[in-house]
Design a protein that fits this description.
Layout: H1 2-5, E1 12-16, H2 18-22, H3 33-53, E2 58-62, H4 70-84, E3 91-96, H5 103-110, H6 123-127, E4 133-137, E5 155-159, H7 171-181, E6 190-193, H8 203-225
Parallel strand pairs: 1-2, 2-3, 3-4, 4-5, 5-6
C-alpha cells in the first residue's frame, strides 16, 4: 500500500513458489512433499490476493526448484503453482533459474555440462499453464536460447543481465541477447529483465547494469520501429 501511494507505474511483487518453499523443509506432519506443496499453495494464494487488493499489478512466483525435480514439476509442481494463482485478476509470472550464491548450488551446476537442457522436461506443460509470464536467465546462460520456442505464445521476461558478475554489460551486449530471443519470442511479448535478483551486487554495480538494460532495450525498440 505504501508503494502504491508513491507511484502510478505498474508494481511487480515476488513470492516463493510452492515447490521451492518445500525444497529445504523437513515435513514431519504430512510426510509428503506434494501434500505440503498444496498447503503452501493455498496460503500463497491468500497472500497473493491480498497483494492484488493492495494494488500490485504483477505477482511473480520464484520456482528455481523446477530445474531439479523434473518429474514432480510435471506431476504436481505446475498444478500447485496454478493453485497459488487461482482467482487472481492481475498478471502472474513464474521465475525459473539455476540458482546463485551457495556452494552446493555452484558445485551442482558444475556437473551439468556445457549445455543445460533441463527446461525441455517441463516447458511444454508450462506453455499450457495459466501463468501469464515466464521469467528466465538468458545472458551468459548454458541454456540454448532456442528452447524458448517451447513456450512460444507466453510473455517472456528475457534475462539480459548476468547477476553473478560485477562486470557491467554494454547496451549492445544487452541488445544482442534480446535479438537472439526475438527469434523465438514475439516482440510484443518480450520483457527485458535481469537473470535473477541483484541483492548480492553493490548498488553502483546494480545501477550500472540497470542503465545498460534500459539502453539495450532502447536499441531494440529503435530497430523494431525502423
Amino acid at each position: 500500500k505504501f508503494l502504491r501511494q508513491h507511484t502510478d507505474r505498474p508494481i511487480k511483487w515476488a513470492l516463493p513458489g510452492p515447490m521451492t518453499m518445500i525444497d529445504t523443509l523437513y515435513d514431519a506432519h504430512y510426510k509428503s512433499r506434494e501434500k505440503l506443496a498444496w498447503e503452501f499453495a493455498t496460503i500463497l494464494n491468500q497472500e497473493a490476493k491480498e497483494l492484488e487488493a493492495a494494488g500490485v499489478d504483477i505477482i511473480q512466483f520464484d520456482e528455481p526448484a523446477f530445474n531439479v525435480f523434473f518429474d514432480d514439476v510435471n506431476d504436481w509442481g505446475i498444478a500447485t503453482l496454478e493453485r497459488a494463482i487461482e482467482g487472481l485478476k492481475c498478471e502472474t509470472a513464474v521465475h525459473i533459474c539455476y540458482g546463485y550464491g551457495i556452494k552446493a548450488n555452484t558445485d551442482w551446476k558444475k556437473t551439468l555440462g556445457s549445455e543445460w537442457r533441463q527446461y525441455e522436461e517441463f516447458f511444454p506443460k508450462l506453455q499450457q499453464s495459466k501463468i501469464d509470464i515466464i521469467s528466465l536467465e538468458c545472458h551468459n546462460s548454458h541454456v540454448p536460447i532456442s528452447l524458448l520456442e517451447l513456450i512460444r505464445g507466453k510473455k517472456v521476461m528475457v534475462g539480459a543481465i548476468d547477476v553473478a558478475t560485477n562486470t557491467i554489460e554494454t547496451p549492445e551486449e544487452v541488445a544482442d541477447t534480446l535479438r537472439k530471443a526475438l527469434e523465438f519470442v514475439d516482440a510484443d511479448k518480450l520483457y527485458p529483465c535481469t537473470n535473477c535478483g541483484m541483492a548480492p551486487l553493490a548498488r553502483d554495480v546494480a545501477r550500472g547494469k540497470l542503465h545498460a538494460l534500459s539502453a539495450g532495450a532502447e536499441i531494440i525498440r529503435r530497430e523494431l520501429s525502423a
